[in-house]
UniProtKB/TrEMBL annotation:
InterPro entries the UniProt entry points to: SQ_cyclase_C, Terpene_synthase-like, Terpenoid_cyclase/PrenylTrfase
Tree of life domain: Bacteria
Protein name per the record: Prenyltransferase/squalene oxidase repeat-containing protein
Location of the Squalene cyclase C-terminal domain: 345-479
A Pfam family: SQHop_cyclase_C
Length: 526
Protein backbone atom coordinates (compact mmCIF):
# COMPACT_ATOMS: atom_id res chain seq x y z
CA UNK A 1 0.00 0.00 0.00
CA UNK A 2 1.37 3.43 -0.94
CA UNK A 3 1.78 6.32 1.48
CA UNK A 4 -1.03 8.13 -0.37
CA UNK A 5 -3.43 5.21 0.23
CA UNK A 6 -2.46 5.10 3.87
CA UNK A 7 -3.15 8.81 4.26
CA UNK A 8 -6.50 8.69 2.48
CA UNK A 9 -7.79 5.53 4.11
CA UNK A 10 -10.34 5.56 6.90
CA UNK A 11 -7.63 4.43 9.34
CA UNK A 12 -4.52 6.54 8.84
CA UNK A 13 -1.33 4.64 9.69
CA UNK A 14 1.11 7.52 9.76
CA UNK A 15 4.00 5.42 11.06
CA UNK A 16 3.72 2.97 8.17
CA UNK A 17 3.53 5.85 5.68
CA UNK A 18 6.59 7.47 7.27
CA UNK A 19 8.51 4.18 7.12
CA UNK A 20 7.71 3.89 3.43
CA UNK A 21 8.75 7.49 2.83
CA UNK A 22 12.10 7.02 4.55
CA UNK A 23 12.75 3.80 2.61
CA UNK A 24 12.14 5.79 -0.55
CA UNK A 25 14.96 8.16 0.37
CA UNK A 26 17.38 5.26 0.24
CA UNK A 27 15.94 3.95 -3.04
CA UNK A 28 16.20 7.37 -4.75
CA UNK A 29 19.37 8.86 -3.26
CA UNK A 30 19.51 11.83 -5.65
CA UNK A 31 16.18 13.06 -4.29
CA UNK A 32 12.59 13.54 -5.42
CA UNK A 33 12.02 16.89 -7.12
CA UNK A 34 9.24 18.09 -9.44
CA UNK A 35 10.07 18.87 -13.09
CA UNK A 36 11.04 22.46 -13.88
CA UNK A 37 9.78 24.53 -16.80
CA UNK A 38 12.84 26.76 -16.59
CA UNK A 39 15.38 23.95 -16.51
CA UNK A 40 13.57 21.90 -19.16
CA UNK A 41 13.51 24.92 -21.48
CA UNK A 42 17.25 25.38 -21.09
CA UNK A 43 17.87 21.77 -22.12
CA UNK A 44 15.66 22.16 -25.20
CA UNK A 45 17.93 25.02 -26.26
CA UNK A 46 21.30 23.73 -25.06
CA UNK A 47 21.04 19.97 -25.58
CA UNK A 48 18.68 19.07 -28.47
CA UNK A 49 20.83 15.93 -28.93
CA UNK A 50 19.92 14.62 -25.46
CA UNK A 51 17.54 11.69 -25.12
CA UNK A 52 13.96 12.87 -24.51
CA UNK A 53 14.11 16.06 -26.63
CA UNK A 54 10.60 15.56 -28.06
CA UNK A 55 9.24 14.88 -24.59
CA UNK A 56 10.77 18.07 -23.27
CA UNK A 57 9.15 20.12 -26.02
CA UNK A 58 5.83 18.37 -25.33
CA UNK A 59 6.19 19.14 -21.62
CA UNK A 60 6.64 22.83 -22.37
CA UNK A 61 3.66 23.03 -24.72
CA UNK A 62 1.53 20.98 -22.33
CA UNK A 63 2.19 23.13 -19.26
CA UNK A 64 1.50 26.54 -20.82
CA UNK A 65 -1.24 28.49 -19.06
CA UNK A 66 -4.34 29.72 -20.93
CA UNK A 67 -2.92 33.27 -20.83
CA UNK A 68 0.25 32.14 -22.64
CA UNK A 69 2.54 32.22 -19.61
CA UNK A 70 4.07 29.48 -17.49
CA UNK A 71 4.45 29.36 -13.71
CA UNK A 72 2.82 30.90 -10.66
CA UNK A 73 1.31 34.38 -10.06
CA UNK A 74 2.96 37.46 -8.54
CA UNK A 75 5.99 37.64 -10.81
CA UNK A 76 6.92 33.97 -10.55
CA UNK A 77 5.82 33.46 -14.17
CA UNK A 78 8.54 35.64 -15.67
CA UNK A 79 11.53 33.28 -15.53
CA UNK A 80 9.74 30.08 -16.66
CA UNK A 81 7.91 31.98 -19.42
CA UNK A 82 11.16 33.45 -20.72
CA UNK A 83 12.82 30.03 -20.68
CA UNK A 84 9.96 28.13 -22.31
CA UNK A 85 9.36 30.76 -24.99
CA UNK A 86 13.05 31.03 -25.85
CA UNK A 87 13.30 27.24 -26.03
CA UNK A 88 10.35 26.92 -28.42
CA UNK A 89 11.80 29.67 -30.61
CA UNK A 90 15.17 27.91 -30.64
CA UNK A 91 13.55 24.65 -31.72
CA UNK A 92 11.63 26.46 -34.46
CA UNK A 93 14.61 28.31 -35.86
CA UNK A 94 16.80 25.20 -35.83
CA UNK A 95 14.03 23.16 -37.45
CA UNK A 96 14.18 20.47 -34.75
CA UNK A 97 12.30 17.22 -35.17
CA UNK A 98 9.88 17.81 -32.29
CA UNK A 99 7.03 15.67 -33.52
CA UNK A 100 5.03 18.85 -34.21
CA UNK A 101 4.57 20.85 -37.39
CA UNK A 102 6.32 24.23 -37.38
CA UNK A 103 3.01 26.10 -37.43
CA UNK A 104 1.78 24.09 -34.45
CA UNK A 105 4.95 24.91 -32.49
CA UNK A 106 4.74 28.57 -33.49
CA UNK A 107 1.37 29.04 -31.76
CA UNK A 108 2.56 28.47 -28.14
CA UNK A 109 5.76 30.40 -28.91
CA UNK A 110 3.75 33.44 -30.06
CA UNK A 111 1.44 33.19 -27.06
CA UNK A 112 4.51 33.11 -24.86
CA UNK A 113 5.89 36.23 -26.54
CA UNK A 114 2.66 38.12 -25.99
CA UNK A 115 2.64 37.01 -22.33
CA UNK A 116 6.23 38.22 -21.92
CA UNK A 117 5.31 41.61 -23.34
CA UNK A 118 2.71 41.93 -20.59
CA UNK A 119 4.88 40.50 -17.81
CA UNK A 120 7.90 42.67 -18.56
CA UNK A 121 5.76 45.80 -18.75
CA UNK A 122 4.45 45.10 -15.24
CA UNK A 123 7.70 44.66 -13.35
CA UNK A 124 10.60 46.73 -12.21
CA UNK A 125 13.68 44.90 -10.98
CA UNK A 126 12.81 45.82 -7.39
CA UNK A 127 9.51 43.92 -7.63
CA UNK A 128 10.87 40.65 -9.01
CA UNK A 129 10.57 37.61 -6.72
CA UNK A 130 13.67 36.96 -4.63
CA UNK A 131 14.65 33.75 -6.43
CA UNK A 132 18.29 32.76 -7.05
CA UNK A 133 20.11 34.66 -9.80
CA UNK A 134 16.84 36.12 -11.13
CA UNK A 135 18.36 39.38 -12.39
CA UNK A 136 21.07 37.75 -14.48
CA UNK A 137 18.72 34.98 -15.66
CA UNK A 138 16.14 37.52 -16.87
CA UNK A 139 18.81 39.59 -18.59
CA UNK A 140 20.37 36.62 -20.38
CA UNK A 141 17.02 35.21 -21.54
CA UNK A 142 15.65 38.54 -22.77
CA UNK A 143 18.77 38.91 -24.90
CA UNK A 144 18.31 35.41 -26.35
CA UNK A 145 14.63 36.00 -27.15
CA UNK A 146 15.42 39.32 -28.80
CA UNK A 147 18.10 37.68 -30.93
CA UNK A 148 15.47 35.21 -32.16
CA UNK A 149 13.06 38.05 -32.94
CA UNK A 150 15.75 39.69 -35.08
CA UNK A 151 15.88 36.67 -37.40
CA UNK A 152 12.30 35.34 -37.14
CA UNK A 153 10.34 36.65 -40.13
CA UNK A 154 6.82 37.85 -39.55
CA UNK A 155 6.85 37.61 -35.78
CA UNK A 156 5.24 41.03 -35.50
CA UNK A 157 6.51 41.56 -31.94
CA UNK A 158 8.90 44.29 -30.89
CA UNK A 159 12.06 43.46 -28.99
CA UNK A 160 11.39 42.72 -25.33
CA UNK A 161 12.32 45.39 -22.79
CA UNK A 162 14.26 44.72 -19.61
CA UNK A 163 12.59 45.46 -16.27
CA UNK A 164 13.63 48.89 -15.06
CA UNK A 165 16.59 48.84 -12.74
CA UNK A 166 18.41 45.79 -14.07
CA UNK A 167 22.17 46.24 -14.40
CA UNK A 168 24.20 44.43 -17.09
CA UNK A 169 27.45 44.61 -15.11
CA UNK A 170 27.10 41.33 -13.13
CA UNK A 171 26.32 39.26 -16.24
CA UNK A 172 29.16 40.89 -18.17
CA UNK A 173 31.56 40.16 -15.29
CA UNK A 174 30.54 36.50 -15.16
CA UNK A 175 31.14 36.00 -18.86
CA UNK A 176 34.49 37.77 -18.84
CA UNK A 177 35.70 35.67 -15.93
CA UNK A 178 34.61 32.47 -17.66
CA UNK A 179 36.42 33.45 -20.85
CA UNK A 180 39.60 34.36 -19.00
CA UNK A 181 39.68 31.07 -17.09
CA UNK A 182 39.02 32.67 -13.70
CA UNK A 183 37.02 30.75 -11.13
CA UNK A 184 33.53 31.87 -10.19
CA UNK A 185 32.00 31.80 -6.71
CA UNK A 186 30.61 28.33 -6.04
CA UNK A 187 27.05 29.66 -5.74
CA UNK A 188 27.14 30.80 -9.40
CA UNK A 189 27.84 27.27 -10.66
CA UNK A 190 24.16 26.47 -10.16
CA UNK A 191 23.27 29.08 -12.80
CA UNK A 192 26.27 28.63 -15.11
CA UNK A 193 23.96 28.69 -18.14
CA UNK A 194 23.72 32.48 -17.87
CA UNK A 195 27.28 32.53 -19.19
CA UNK A 196 25.99 31.61 -22.64
CA UNK A 197 28.76 30.68 -25.06
CA UNK A 198 31.32 31.69 -22.45
CA UNK A 199 30.16 28.77 -20.26
CA UNK A 200 30.81 26.12 -22.94
CA UNK A 201 33.90 24.20 -21.91
CA UNK A 202 34.94 26.94 -19.47
CA UNK A 203 38.42 25.86 -18.34
CA UNK A 204 37.92 26.71 -14.66
CA UNK A 205 34.72 24.64 -14.41
CA UNK A 206 34.69 20.89 -13.78
CA UNK A 207 31.89 18.39 -13.18
CA UNK A 208 31.64 16.59 -9.87
CA UNK A 209 32.28 12.86 -9.60
CA UNK A 210 28.58 12.36 -10.33
CA UNK A 211 28.92 14.34 -13.57
CA UNK A 212 26.88 17.36 -12.55
CA UNK A 213 27.85 21.01 -12.53
CA UNK A 214 26.12 23.04 -9.84
CA UNK A 215 23.52 20.29 -9.25
CA UNK A 216 21.75 21.76 -12.29
CA UNK A 217 20.91 20.08 -15.62
CA UNK A 218 20.94 23.50 -17.29
CA UNK A 219 24.38 24.40 -15.93
CA UNK A 220 25.72 21.00 -16.93
CA UNK A 221 24.29 21.29 -20.45
CA UNK A 222 25.71 24.81 -20.81
CA UNK A 223 29.22 23.56 -20.03
CA UNK A 224 28.81 20.72 -22.56
CA UNK A 225 27.38 22.93 -25.33
CA UNK A 226 30.50 23.17 -27.48
CA UNK A 227 29.07 22.05 -30.82
CA UNK A 228 28.62 18.36 -31.58
CA UNK A 229 27.07 16.05 -28.97
CA UNK A 230 29.68 15.01 -26.39
CA UNK A 231 31.20 11.57 -26.33
CA UNK A 232 28.72 8.99 -24.94
CA UNK A 233 31.19 8.18 -22.20
CA UNK A 234 31.46 11.77 -20.97
CA UNK A 235 30.46 11.84 -17.24
CA UNK A 236 28.44 15.04 -17.65
CA UNK A 237 26.54 13.59 -20.60
CA UNK A 238 25.88 10.38 -18.65
CA UNK A 239 24.54 12.46 -15.77
CA UNK A 240 22.16 14.39 -18.03
CA UNK A 241 20.97 11.19 -19.67
CA UNK A 242 20.29 9.62 -16.27
CA UNK A 243 18.23 12.62 -15.15
CA UNK A 244 16.30 12.85 -18.43
CA UNK A 245 15.52 9.13 -18.45
CA UNK A 246 14.40 9.19 -14.84
CA UNK A 247 11.95 12.02 -15.52
CA UNK A 248 10.88 10.91 -18.99
CA UNK A 249 12.30 13.96 -20.75
CA UNK A 250 11.69 17.05 -18.58
CA UNK A 251 14.19 17.70 -15.80
CA UNK A 252 14.17 19.26 -12.31
CA UNK A 253 15.85 22.51 -11.37
CA UNK A 254 18.21 20.88 -8.87
CA UNK A 255 19.56 17.35 -8.53
CA UNK A 256 21.01 15.74 -6.48
CA UNK A 257 19.55 17.13 -3.24
CA UNK A 258 20.51 14.19 -1.04
CA UNK A 259 21.49 15.96 2.19
CA UNK A 260 18.76 18.59 1.93
CA UNK A 261 16.02 16.02 1.39
CA UNK A 262 17.11 13.69 4.18
CA UNK A 263 17.61 16.46 6.70
CA UNK A 264 14.21 18.02 6.12
CA UNK A 265 12.29 14.72 5.97
CA UNK A 266 13.81 13.38 9.17
CA UNK A 267 13.43 16.64 11.07
CA UNK A 268 9.73 16.99 10.15
CA UNK A 269 8.95 13.40 11.11
CA UNK A 270 10.96 13.17 14.34
CA UNK A 271 9.98 16.62 15.60
CA UNK A 272 6.33 15.57 15.35
CA UNK A 273 7.03 12.43 17.38
CA UNK A 274 6.60 9.86 14.60
CA UNK A 275 8.50 6.70 15.57
CA UNK A 276 9.54 5.55 12.12
CA UNK A 277 12.41 3.25 11.24
CA UNK A 278 15.48 5.21 10.15
CA UNK A 279 18.16 3.05 8.51
CA UNK A 280 21.43 3.54 10.42
CA UNK A 281 23.21 4.49 7.18
CA UNK A 282 21.07 7.61 6.86
CA UNK A 283 22.19 9.55 9.98
CA UNK A 284 25.72 8.22 9.42
CA UNK A 285 25.70 9.71 5.92
CA UNK A 286 24.32 12.99 7.26
CA UNK A 287 27.07 13.24 9.85
CA UNK A 288 29.75 12.35 7.29
CA UNK A 289 28.51 15.11 4.96
CA UNK A 290 29.15 17.86 7.54
CA UNK A 291 32.64 19.27 7.19
CA UNK A 292 34.35 22.25 8.83
CA UNK A 293 32.52 24.60 6.43
CA UNK A 294 29.18 22.83 6.74
CA UNK A 295 27.41 20.74 4.12
CA UNK A 296 25.82 21.45 0.75
CA UNK A 297 22.31 20.39 -0.18
CA UNK A 298 23.83 18.00 -2.71
CA UNK A 299 26.86 17.36 -4.89
CA UNK A 300 27.83 20.36 -7.00
CA UNK A 301 26.46 23.00 -4.62
CA UNK A 302 28.37 25.08 -2.06
CA UNK A 303 27.88 24.45 1.67
CA UNK A 304 25.06 26.51 3.13
CA UNK A 305 23.81 27.31 6.60
CA UNK A 306 20.30 26.06 5.88
CA UNK A 307 21.19 22.49 4.92
CA UNK A 308 23.89 22.37 7.57
CA UNK A 309 21.61 23.47 10.39
CA UNK A 310 18.73 21.15 9.41
CA UNK A 311 21.12 18.20 9.12
CA UNK A 312 22.54 19.02 12.57
CA UNK A 313 19.05 19.39 14.04
CA UNK A 314 17.92 16.07 12.54
CA UNK A 315 20.96 14.29 13.98
CA UNK A 316 20.30 15.79 17.40
CA UNK A 317 16.64 14.74 17.28
CA UNK A 318 17.77 11.20 16.42
CA UNK A 319 19.98 11.08 19.51
CA UNK A 320 23.23 11.67 17.61
CA UNK A 321 24.09 15.29 18.50
CA UNK A 322 26.93 16.63 16.38
CA UNK A 323 28.96 19.66 17.39
CA UNK A 324 27.48 22.60 15.39
CA UNK A 325 30.71 24.61 15.15
CA UNK A 326 30.59 24.43 11.34
CA UNK A 327 27.74 26.96 11.46
CA UNK A 328 30.21 29.59 12.66
CA UNK A 329 31.37 29.85 9.03
CA UNK A 330 28.07 31.58 8.26
CA UNK A 331 27.90 33.93 11.26
CA UNK A 332 27.68 37.69 10.78
CA UNK A 333 27.52 40.35 13.52
CA UNK A 334 23.70 40.33 13.41
CA UNK A 335 22.54 36.96 12.01
CA UNK A 336 23.61 33.91 9.99
CA UNK A 337 23.89 34.12 6.20
CA UNK A 338 22.90 31.29 3.89
CA UNK A 339 26.43 31.48 2.44
CA UNK A 340 29.14 34.10 2.50
CA UNK A 341 28.43 36.90 0.05
CA UNK A 342 24.66 36.41 0.21
CA UNK A 343 22.62 39.38 -0.97
CA UNK A 344 19.75 39.70 1.49
CA UNK A 345 18.99 37.42 4.40
CA UNK A 346 16.67 34.53 5.23
CA UNK A 347 14.51 34.16 8.33
CA UNK A 348 13.96 30.43 7.72
CA UNK A 349 17.72 29.84 7.60
CA UNK A 350 18.13 31.62 10.92
CA UNK A 351 15.20 29.74 12.43
CA UNK A 352 16.92 26.48 11.48
CA UNK A 353 20.20 27.72 12.95
CA UNK A 354 18.31 28.43 16.17
CA UNK A 355 16.93 24.87 16.10
CA UNK A 356 20.41 23.41 15.63
CA UNK A 357 22.11 25.43 18.36
CA UNK A 358 19.17 25.17 20.73
CA UNK A 359 18.69 21.42 20.52
CA UNK A 360 22.41 20.70 20.76
CA UNK A 361 22.69 22.90 23.86
CA UNK A 362 19.71 21.09 25.37
CA UNK A 363 21.20 17.66 24.79
CA UNK A 364 24.69 18.75 25.89
CA UNK A 365 24.05 21.04 28.89
CA UNK A 366 27.76 21.50 29.48
CA UNK A 367 28.00 23.20 26.07
CA UNK A 368 25.07 25.58 26.60
CA UNK A 369 27.27 28.53 27.52
CA UNK A 370 29.22 28.24 24.28
CA UNK A 371 26.11 28.80 22.19
CA UNK A 372 24.01 31.05 24.42
CA UNK A 373 25.12 34.26 22.72
CA UNK A 374 24.35 32.94 19.24
CA UNK A 375 20.97 31.61 20.36
CA UNK A 376 20.02 34.98 21.86
CA UNK A 377 21.26 36.91 18.83
CA UNK A 378 19.35 34.81 16.31
CA UNK A 379 16.15 34.82 18.39
CA UNK A 380 16.24 38.62 18.67
CA UNK A 381 16.92 38.99 14.93
CA UNK A 382 13.93 36.77 14.11
CA UNK A 383 11.61 38.70 16.43
CA UNK A 384 12.64 41.96 14.78
CA UNK A 385 11.67 40.61 11.38
CA UNK A 386 8.18 39.47 12.24
CA UNK A 387 5.65 41.34 10.12
CA UNK A 388 2.98 43.52 11.66
CA UNK A 389 0.29 40.88 11.07
CA UNK A 390 2.25 38.21 13.01
CA UNK A 391 3.69 36.29 10.04
CA UNK A 392 7.13 36.07 8.47
CA UNK A 393 8.11 35.82 4.80
CA UNK A 394 11.27 34.39 3.34
CA UNK A 395 13.53 34.24 0.31
CA UNK A 396 13.53 30.43 0.02
CA UNK A 397 9.79 29.78 -0.16
CA UNK A 398 6.84 31.51 -1.80
CA UNK A 399 4.50 30.87 1.12
CA UNK A 400 4.53 32.83 4.38
CA UNK A 401 3.30 29.67 6.12
CA UNK A 402 6.68 27.99 5.63
CA UNK A 403 8.56 30.97 7.02
CA UNK A 404 6.10 31.40 9.87
CA UNK A 405 6.14 27.79 11.02
CA UNK A 406 9.95 27.76 10.86
CA UNK A 407 10.26 30.90 12.98
CA UNK A 408 7.42 30.22 15.41
CA UNK A 409 8.54 26.66 16.22
CA UNK A 410 12.17 27.69 16.72
CA UNK A 411 11.25 30.69 18.87
CA UNK A 412 8.66 28.71 20.81
CA UNK A 413 11.18 26.04 21.74
CA UNK A 414 14.48 27.92 21.99
CA UNK A 415 13.65 31.64 21.91
CA UNK A 416 13.06 32.10 25.63
CA UNK A 417 10.40 34.09 27.43
CA UNK A 418 11.15 37.12 25.25
CA UNK A 419 9.69 35.27 22.27
CA UNK A 420 6.29 34.37 23.73
CA UNK A 421 4.52 37.41 22.34
CA UNK A 422 5.94 36.79 18.86
CA UNK A 423 4.77 33.17 18.96
CA UNK A 424 1.28 34.16 20.12
CA UNK A 425 1.05 36.68 17.28
CA UNK A 426 2.03 33.98 14.79
CA UNK A 427 -0.67 31.67 16.17
CA UNK A 428 -3.29 34.40 15.89
CA UNK A 429 -2.28 35.17 12.27
CA UNK A 430 -2.57 31.49 11.42
CA UNK A 431 -6.04 31.25 12.96
CA UNK A 432 -7.16 34.41 11.17
CA UNK A 433 -6.04 33.25 7.72
CA UNK A 434 -7.67 29.81 7.58
CA UNK A 435 -9.89 29.32 4.52
CA UNK A 436 -13.51 28.26 4.53
CA UNK A 437 -12.64 24.70 3.46
CA UNK A 438 -10.25 24.32 6.40
CA UNK A 439 -7.08 24.82 4.39
CA UNK A 440 -4.37 27.45 4.38
CA UNK A 441 -2.47 28.87 1.42
CA UNK A 442 -1.02 31.95 -0.24
CA UNK A 443 -2.92 31.65 -3.53
CA UNK A 444 -5.18 28.64 -2.94
CA UNK A 445 -5.42 26.16 -0.12
CA UNK A 446 -2.75 23.47 -0.34
CA UNK A 447 -1.85 20.36 1.63
CA UNK A 448 1.69 21.65 2.16
CA UNK A 449 0.71 25.01 3.62
CA UNK A 450 -2.10 23.45 5.65
CA UNK A 451 0.44 21.05 7.14
CA UNK A 452 2.64 23.96 8.20
CA UNK A 453 -0.30 25.75 9.80
CA UNK A 454 -1.36 22.61 11.67
CA UNK A 455 2.13 22.01 13.00
CA UNK A 456 2.29 25.57 14.26
CA UNK A 457 -1.09 25.36 15.99
CA UNK A 458 -0.57 21.93 17.53
CA UNK A 459 3.05 22.41 18.64
CA UNK A 460 3.03 26.00 19.96
CA UNK A 461 -0.66 26.97 19.97
CA UNK A 462 -0.78 26.99 23.74
CA UNK A 463 -4.11 28.13 25.17
CA UNK A 464 -5.26 29.74 21.95
CA UNK A 465 -8.55 28.40 20.50
CA UNK A 466 -6.76 26.09 18.11
CA UNK A 467 -8.74 22.86 18.38
CA UNK A 468 -11.60 23.71 16.03
CA UNK A 469 -9.22 25.20 13.46
CA UNK A 470 -6.93 22.18 13.70
CA UNK A 471 -9.87 19.80 13.24
CA UNK A 472 -10.97 21.64 10.11
CA UNK A 473 -7.42 21.53 8.77
CA UNK A 474 -7.18 17.82 9.56
CA UNK A 475 -10.40 17.16 7.65
CA UNK A 476 -8.96 19.05 4.68
CA UNK A 477 -5.78 16.97 4.68
CA UNK A 478 -7.88 13.81 4.69
CA UNK A 479 -9.52 14.94 1.46
CA UNK A 480 -6.50 15.90 -0.68
CA UNK A 481 -5.50 13.53 -3.47
CA UNK A 482 -1.71 13.45 -3.03
CA UNK A 483 0.06 15.71 -0.53
CA UNK A 484 3.34 15.50 -2.44
CA UNK A 485 1.95 16.69 -5.76
CA UNK A 486 0.81 20.17 -4.83
CA UNK A 487 1.81 23.39 -6.57
CA UNK A 488 5.50 24.36 -6.60
CA UNK A 489 6.25 26.76 -3.75
CA UNK A 490 9.96 26.36 -3.00
CA UNK A 491 12.40 28.90 -4.42
CA UNK A 492 15.05 27.95 -6.93
CA UNK A 493 15.56 29.40 -10.40
CA UNK A 494 11.85 28.73 -10.70
CA UNK A 495 9.46 27.27 -8.12
CA UNK A 496 9.66 23.55 -7.39
CA UNK A 497 8.29 20.80 -5.11
CA UNK A 498 10.71 18.70 -3.02
CA UNK A 499 8.18 15.87 -3.03
CA UNK A 500 9.44 13.78 -0.11
CA UNK A 501 9.92 16.87 2.07
CA UNK A 502 6.35 18.00 1.50
CA UNK A 503 4.99 14.52 2.19
CA UNK A 504 6.95 14.43 5.45
CA UNK A 505 5.47 17.77 6.50
CA UNK A 506 1.96 16.47 5.81
CA UNK A 507 2.60 13.24 7.71
CA UNK A 508 3.90 15.26 10.65
CA UNK A 509 0.71 17.33 10.71
CA UNK A 510 -1.50 14.25 10.45
CA UNK A 511 0.34 12.60 13.32
CA UNK A 512 0.02 15.66 15.54
CA UNK A 513 -3.70 15.93 14.79
CA UNK A 514 -4.33 12.25 15.47
CA UNK A 515 -2.44 12.50 18.76
CA UNK A 516 -5.00 15.07 19.96
CA UNK A 517 -8.24 13.23 20.84
CA UNK A 518 -10.33 16.38 20.82
CA UNK A 519 -9.13 17.32 17.30
CA UNK A 520 -10.04 13.86 16.04
CA UNK A 521 -13.43 13.97 17.77
CA UNK A 522 -14.39 17.32 16.20
CA UNK A 523 -13.06 16.23 12.80
CA UNK A 524 -15.18 13.07 12.88
CA UNK A 525 -18.26 15.09 13.76
CA UNK A 526 -17.70 17.10 10.58
Amino acid sequence: MSSTDLILGAQIDVTAAADELVRGLMLQPWGQVSPSVYETGRLVTLAPWLVGHRDRVAYLTGTQRPDGAWGAPDGYALVPTLSATEALLSALIRGDDCGLAAEVLMEPAMRGLHALTRLLAEFEAARLPDTPAIEIIVMSLVALVNAHLDVLPGAGIERLPLPAGLNEAPLTMIRRRLESGETLPDKLMHALEVGGRSAAGAPAVWPTAAGTIGASPAATAAWLAVGDPPNPGDPARRHLEAVALRYGGPVPVGLPITVFERGWVLSWLVRAGIECHVPPEMPADLAAAIGPAGTPAGAGLPPDADTTSVALYALSLLGMPYEPESLRAFETPTHFCTWQGEEGASVSVNAHVLDAFGHFARTRPSRTEGYAAAIGKVAAWLRERQRADGSWDDRWHASPYYATVSCALALGEFGGAESRVAVRRAVRWTLDTQREDGSWGRWDGTAEETAYALQLLLLVGGDEPVTEAAARGYRYLRRVADPGEGPPLWHDKDLYVPVAVVRAAVLAALHLAQANPRVVEIACQG
